[in-house]
Amino acid sequence: MDVGTRIRGALGRAAVRNHARHEGPPRRSREDVHAWARAHLPDRPLVVVSNREPYSHYRDGDRLRWVRNAGGLTVALDSVAQAIGGLWVAHGSGTADRASVDARDRVACPPDHPRYTLRRVWITPEEMARYYSGFANSALWPLCHIAYVRPRFRLDDWQMYDAINRRFAEAVLQELDGRPALVFVQDYHLATLPAYLKAARPDLQVAMFWHIPWPNPEVFRILPWRHELIEGLLATDLLGFHIRQHANNFLQTVGETLEARVDMEAMAVIRGNRRTWVRAFPISVDADEIAVMAQSPAAEQGERALRQRYGLEGMQVGLGIDRLDYTKGIPERLQALHRLFEKRPEWIGRFAYIQIGVPSRIELQEYRAVQRRSRYWIDRINQDFPRPGGPTAVFLEENMDFRELIPYYRMADLCAVTALHDGMNLVAKEYLAASPDLEGALVLSPFTGAARELERAWIASPYDREGLADAYHAALLEPEAARHERMAALRETVLRRNIYDWTLEVLDAAVSLGLRTPQAEEVAPPPVP
Ligand code: GDG
């Protein structure tokens, strides 16, 4: 990108933020995160720990190149780490990652403008098969999502999961070398890591965010290693979930699994001389930035190109963007689409649908089945309801650059988010952020965290084919004034709390709740699982 384009982009973003500031309630920006970090963490580093790394290296001929890994969360945490020069510990997954670190497995990031240290943790493919594909994605993922896929519990997988968690903890401890820090751990891959951290360093402050749902105690009870997993999570000082229901499920699970005082009112678990605060922090997206991208000439041009490529001139267009995961309800959504055309043939030739499906965890058979079923329904729709100008349903099985998604969001008259169960679902929020012209309709599953905030979406269950088909029909037919009013209300909700608000709320809660926890409670280490 040339300097002129960068400057224009930055000015455009600043203008939108300014406009937004004066239009509505204050919301946070990347700069606010920087300022907060300087004010509240002046004397201790922030350590982010996640399975996925923010930057990966790969080889291009003889040259080493790098990419920034996409995703709202990675970008927001990257900006916090940049602001305070912290440390990030993550799995080195790039093909040239080993070639780009120093003797202590560190690389300065961002690679073109170093501000913080990325410490890479190495995991072999055999270890990944058990830690990641095995325990994390074949046991914990289905256990926490009510999608009726049976979790697989294998001792080897669990042992490897725990061993890799210990490896991550050792990397954090080695990097800190006795210094105080606020450690912010991400997600279900790293549930036992906090216990290893606290066992060695009871003084460390540890916050964790669980990005997927937490099931009710009856469901969680089937996990053979539930005690160890809960012990790991209770070693945190603050544990965050997207919604209150997941937080309550966790508190009830603790009450039924271990001897502990669970304070549902204060939302805390007190065990011996330790306290874990449990809170809900609904995650969001960089809504201002997405709105700017959606209004850019590039997005407008992109939309025109897509309409031409798929013969969509004058058509209404539906859209789905998901990882190809069984929790996302993709075949269910396509079946309902087939039903729409069956029930309401007037839509044939007037409405077309694009599904972007990012291949995901394809080593697992349940994921290959989602891919097969999605392809089947796309083909059925095209066979049964053809139209002259182009395909009625398009399936793009690829991982695009985030910028490439924007013209699709912009073009869509309807976005279908039909997860069988989802922690939050960021696609719903991205779609709203990317629709500043208020032309659109969000069809949303009630089983997403997002449905708690986005109540004015067209709420329809993926388990009810007729109801979902009817929701598509009603959403597409809604008169313009009502449609705009509905979209304006939904957008306002997304614009009010963006990803920077989320980051600050979690970190600020970690700092302020830490102040409420007596020092004496901090000294005794919890048992190691
Ligand atoms: C977990 C929880 C929770 C999609 N296709 C491409 C692409 N995407 C991006 C989207 C969006 C993200 O992936 C998907 O986010 P979701 O929230 O829908 O789902 P999960 O990946 O399952 O995330 C979920 C989330 O964590 C955050 O806490 O909301 O409940 O399951 O941002 O835009 N990005 C790029 N290319 C694509 O082709 N670059």
Kindly summarize this structure in a few lines.
The chain is an alpha/beta fold. 47% of the residues lie in helices and 17% in strands.
Feature tags:
alpha/beta; 19 helices; 10-stranded mixed beta sheet; binds GDP-alpha-D-glucose; 6-stranded parallel beta sheet
List the helices and strands and how they pair.
Blueprint: H1 3-23, H2 30-40, E1 46-50, E2 55-60, E3 63-68, H3 72-84, E4 87-91, E5 106-109, E6 116-121, H4 125-144, H5 155-176, E7 182-186, H6 193-200, E8 205-209, H7 217-220, H8 226-233, E9 238-241, H9 244-257, E10 261-263, E11 268-271, E12 274-280, H10 287-294, H11 297-309, E13 316-323, H12 330-343, E14 351-358, H13 365-384, E15 393-396, H14 402-411, E16 414-417, H15 426-433, E17 442-444, H16 450-453, E18 458-459, H17 465-477, H18 480-496, H19 499-516
Parallel strand pairs: 1-4, 1-7, 4-6, 7-8, 8-9, 9-12, 13-14, 13-16, 14-15, 16-17, 17-18
Antiparallel strand pairs: 2-3, 5-6, 10-11, 11-12
The structure holds GDP-alpha-D-glucose.
